[in-house]
Amino acid sequence: MKYRVxxxxxxxxxxxxxxxxxxxxxxxxxxxxxxxxxxxxEEKASLYRKQIPDAKLKIYTDHRLMLDELKPDFVTxxxxxxxxxxxxxxxxxxxxxxxxxxxxxxxTSDALRMIEVSRKAGKKxxxxxxxxxxxxxxKLYNAIYANRFGRILHGMIQVRWNxxxxxxxxxxxRGTWELDGGTLMNQCxxxxxxxxxxxxxxxxxxxxxxxxxLKPIEAEDFGSAIVEFDTxxxxxxEGTADVFPKNLSENLSIxxxxxxxxxxxxxxxxxxxxxxxxxxxxxxxxxEMIKQSEEDPPTVYGFGHTPLFxxxxxxxxxxxxxxxxxxxxxxxxxxxxxxYQSTKEGRRVEMPVDFDTRRMSGFFKS
Length: 366
Description:
This protein has 366 residues and is an alpha/beta fold. The protein has 2 domains: 3-131 and 303-325, Rossmann fold (3-Layer(aba) Sandwich); 132-297 and 331-350, Dihydrodipicolinate Reductase, domain 2, CATH 3.30.360.10. Helices cover 33% and strands 23% of the residues. It is built from 11 helices and 14 strands. The chain has helices at 14-23, 38-49, 63-70, 84-93, 108-121, 135-145, 165-170, 189-199, 286-291, 305-318, 326-345, and strands at 3-8, 28-34, 58-60, 74-77, 97-101, 125-128, 152-160, 203-211, 222-229, 234-240, 249-256, 259-264, 270-276, 349-350. The strands form 2 sheets. Strands 13-12-11-7-10-9-8-14 form an 8-stranded mixed beta sheet. A 6-stranded parallel beta sheet has the order 3-2-1-4-5-6, sandwiched between helices. Helix 1 (14-23) crosses helix 10 (305-318), helix 4 (84-93) runs parallel beside helix 5 and helix 5 (108-121) packs antiparallel against helix 11 (326-345). It is globular and about 55 Å long. The termini are far apart.
């Protein structure tokens, strides 16, 4: 049996959804595409038909009408972030499972409502944190699961990218508090998810500092934070869209009593450092591990959408949770919102928080 899928939102990231549909075409078929700008939906339909010419696709500008007419088994959502919660809830209440792009929401209350609605309806909700599926990320997680680090002491995520003025001009919602948030919520969300995933435990408190240095946006183009976990470990977050003159790297570093690992590359896809107390016993060398890294992807989106979608299909077939559930997606949203609240109030913020990007409106004065 093939699952019928529909795409809502046909902007920049949606091409990765099309790529994932095609790579998983033995299990799914695309039935419909929806975008307020119909030409964008038609463009993505053409991209799909290049490999499946006889595909029967319907195009919509109203997602509720599409849901009502097609009744897809699951929906993937790639709209502006501010619309994720309502579209996700509409899809779930119409009977569809959901994969939603990161971040899942711009407020803690919206994210929790998405989770509640999906659980109550018995529908699966996954969030597109595809970098968990990188070869390097999986090897790191497996080492943590095997307790090779011993006690994890601290970790750091560094997102050192560039987004030029033209990037923000392409879509006026980018960098707004209403629909997007800033560099932390958009560009750094993946890295913050990886920090959560690998550090273990829950965030206890956050102290943040953000700035709007160069970009013509409402929100921040630089963000940083000290994150305390309930295990006693400390996380450090650094994210910027101001690196001159182009993207530099995204790095995840984990330091433990018996191990040190640094992942790098354009999208956390390369092993740069791999040192463990038990490496010699296991017959493992750092040079061999580094050689196993993936090459840099053509874009910062990486290679992970295809395996993330495959995991979701497996979750449907096996009636289990996907790897990146709504609850997992919520952790990153809450941490980023705590950084915003800490910046606004000039103090350390204890978890849990109840915050919304809209409460940052006007924070950075022109």
